[in-house]
């Protein structure tokens, strides 16, 4: 440790030993300042304290005063050193955390300067020339960096894979993991932990994309996948944007989709109880691979009651769900109804 961090210490001990006085406020302030400077320079507290104890031992033989006065002064001086050191570390951690949060917010914002992002990314372990994928966890409980759930997920992920090239953060109550695009096992482990950490959590994976713009692209895909999963009431806690690409295509022309829904399914509103029971019937039928017995079981209906509903759908709409020619239009209309929230 450089000798400059001992400046004034020998004089402090000599004065205390000669007079039995206590260290002055100015002397203790100087020790706090030197402790903070040592922290900012990257020295360890152990080395700083060790250097002062060694200086105490070297000065001790020349000190004519009482041992009690000297030891009390050493205690106060070391306490001031540690206080300054810890305060400097706390400020550094807060600044680092603030810089990290600012970087991640910019990274997930489509309007950010991509050139500046690439320059800052290396500091946080990301190589934006490579592809990255984003997983987003959203649950009934809010994820925040101060919550035990978010901390436990982060500790487990970093403990298994290391912190290099992986970023975990929270944003708008969601828990987010950014990982290299060729490390799908990282996102898989993250999803497993996030679902276990909070009940009702659903995790969506965006597709891997290259560059700084690729991170925000993957993030937006994951957000859209979660939204689609909720609107379509998709089963399972994990969804992948790559598996849902057909739905944005269907929803792209909203006016045409609304026209198909009203034309194909509109007559179901004339039935007693409205269209919703028949929408649920068709959803279960298509999800069950058009096997009536399995669809009836999922809806807790008898097969007879279920087939009756299918017949009523054929009567009202003129489209037969069991006919391959009609089935595609009906299934597309049902997907559109769920995307549009129809008939509610």
From TrEMBL:
Domain CdaR GGDEF-like residues, every copy: 112-227
Location of the PucR C-terminal helix-turn-helix domain: 279-334
Cleavable signal peptide: none
Short name of any one Pfam family annotated for the protein: HTH_30
Protein family membership: Belongs to the CdaR family.
Name assigned to this protein: Helix-turn-helix domain-containing protein
């Amino acid at each position: 440790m450089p000798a400059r961090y001992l400046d004034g210490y020998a004089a402090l001990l000599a004065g205390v030993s000669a007079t039995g006085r206590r260290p002055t406020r100015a002397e203790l302030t100087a020790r706090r300042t030197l402790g903070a400077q040592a922290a900012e320079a990257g020295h360890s507290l152990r080395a700083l304290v060790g250097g002062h104890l060694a200086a105490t031992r070297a000065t001790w033989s020349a000190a004519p005063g009482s041992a009690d006065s000297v030891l009390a002064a050493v205690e106060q001086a070391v306490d001031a050193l540690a206080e300054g050191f810890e305060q400097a570390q706390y400020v550094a951690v807060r600044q680092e955390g603030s810089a990290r949060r600012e970087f991640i917010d910019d990274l997930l914002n489509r309007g950010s300067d991509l050139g500046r992002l690439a320059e800052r990314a290396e500091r946080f372990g990301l190589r934006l020339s490579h592809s990255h994928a984003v997983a987003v966890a959203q649950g009934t409980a809010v994820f925040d960096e101060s919550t035990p759930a978010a901390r436990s997920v982060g500790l487990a992920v970093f403990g298994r894979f290391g912190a290099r090239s992986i970023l975990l953060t929270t944003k708008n109550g969601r828990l987010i993991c950014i990982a290299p695009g060729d490390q799908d096992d990282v996102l898989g482990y993250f999803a497993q932990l996030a679902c276990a950490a909070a009940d009702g959590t659903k995790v969506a994976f965006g597709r891997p994309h290259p560059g700084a713009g690729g991170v925000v692209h993957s993030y937006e895909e994951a957000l859209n996948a979660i939204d689609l999963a909720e609107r379509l009431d998709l089963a399972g806690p994990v969804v992948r944007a790559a598996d849902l690409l057909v739905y944005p295509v269907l929803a792209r022309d909203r006016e045409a989709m609304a026209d198909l829904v009203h034309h194909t399914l509109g007559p179901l509103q004339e039935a007693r109880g409205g269209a919703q029971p028949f929408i649920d019937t068709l959803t279960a039928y298509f999800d069950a691979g058009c096997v009536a017995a399995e669809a009836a079981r999922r809806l807790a209906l008898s097969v007879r009651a279920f087939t009756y509903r299918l017949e009523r759908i054929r009567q009202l709409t003129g489209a037969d769900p069991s006919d391959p020619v009609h089935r595609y239009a009906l299934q597309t209309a049902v997907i559109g109804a769920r995307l549009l929230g129809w008939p509610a």
